[in-house]
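FAQ: What does the model actually see?

It sees only this:
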Amino acid sequence: MTQIEEFNKWLANPEGLHLEFKAAQSASRHDKDLPGYCAAPANEGGGKLILGVDEHLKKMGVQL
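And it is asked to produce this:
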């Protein structure tokens, strides 16, 4: 599976304990919130944190 195919597969799934999407729109906010974003999946035994994904566009089915 190519990297883009794998990425699109993640986008097709809903967020859950092991998959989370964040738009990460602002650099200053991003720097402050990133440790908290990483802690959530780490506390659940691991997972994927995908930055730069707008939840609105994801719901519209936009893919790469």
